[in-house]
Specification:
single chain, about 210 residues, wza like fold, Outer membrane lipoprotein wza fold like, 2 domains
C-alpha cells in the first residue's frame, strides 16, 4: 500500500501560484499577438493605402507644433493647411501627400519634415447591389474582398446568377468591369478572382 502511495504523483500546493502566473502570462502573450495581427491588417498602416474623402488625417511638421492639424478630407478630395493652402489628398498615399505638402512648405521652412497619419478610415466604402439579401452601401473601415462584401450584404438570393458577378470600378473617370465566378471560387478554382475591393467599388450580382 505504501509503495502505491509513493508512486502516486503529488500536486504540491505551492505549485498553484506558478501555474496561475504561467496561465496569466500565456493569456497576455496571446492578447499581444492578436493586437499585433489586428494592427497589421489596418489599412492605414499599409504603404499602398490611398486616402479617400471623409478620412480623418493628422498632419504634423517637425518642430512646428503650430502647424499640426487634424483635418477631414473634403468631398472634393482636398484639405486646407496653414502655409500650404488647399491641396489634394484623396487618391494619394500618406507618403505621397507628405511629399506634396513638403514641396509647398520648403519656401517657408527649408528643412521641414512632414508626417501624415490616417486617424480614421471613414472613406473606405463599397456597394453591393442586385440579387443579395441586403443590398446597400457598406462603410467597412478595412480592406475586404468580394466574398466578404457579399457576406456583408446577407449573401445571395435564390435568384442570383452566382457565376456572373461583376465588380465595377472607376479609375481616372473610366469604368472597369471585373468578373467574379462564385461557382469556381467555391470549388477552389481561380481564387485570384476574389480580389481586394477598393473605395467605391460596386459589386453587382445579377
Amino acid at each position: 500500500m505504501s509503495d502505491t502511495l509513493a508512486q502516486t504523483p503529488i500536486f504540491r500546493v505551492n505549485s498553484v501560484p506558478r501555474l496561475i502566473l504561467a496561465l496569466v502570462a500565456l493569456v497576455c502573450w496571446t492578447a499581444e499577438l492578436s493586437a499585433a495581427a489586428e494592427s497589421a491588417l489596418d489599412p492605414a498602416e499599409l504603404p499602398d493605402y490611398r486616402i479617400a474623402a471623409e478620412d480623418v488625417l493628422d498632419v504634423s511638421v517637425w518642430r512646428e507644433p503650430e502647424l499640426q492639424r487634424q483635418v477631414i478630407v473634403r468631398p472634393d478630395g482636398g484639405i486646407s493647411l496653414p502655409l500650404v493652402g488647399n491641396i489634394q489628398a484623396a487618391g494619394r498615399t500618406p507618403a505621397e501627400l507628405e511629399e506634396a505638402i513638403l514641396q509647398k512648405l520648403t519656401t517657408y521652412i527649408p528643412d521641414a519634415v512632414v508626417t501624415v497619419s490616417v486617424l480614421e478610415l471613414r472613406g473606405l466604402r463599397v456597394y453591393v447591389t442586385g440579387n443579395v439579401r441586403s443590398p446597400g452601401q457598406f462603410e467597412v473601415g478595412r480592406y475586404i474582398d468580394v466574398l466578404q462584401a457579399i457576406t456583408l450584404a446577407g449573401g445571395f438570393t435564390p435568384f442570383a446568377d452566382k457565376g456572373d458577378v461583376q465588380i465595377i470600378r472607376r479609375v481616372d473617370g473610366r469604368e472597369t468591369v471585373l468578373k467574379f465566378d462564385y461557382n469556381q471560387v467555391e470549388r477552389g478554382r481561380n481564387l485570384h478572382q476574389n480580389i481586394r475591393l477598393q473605395t467605391d467599388d460596386v459589386v453587382l450580382v445579377p
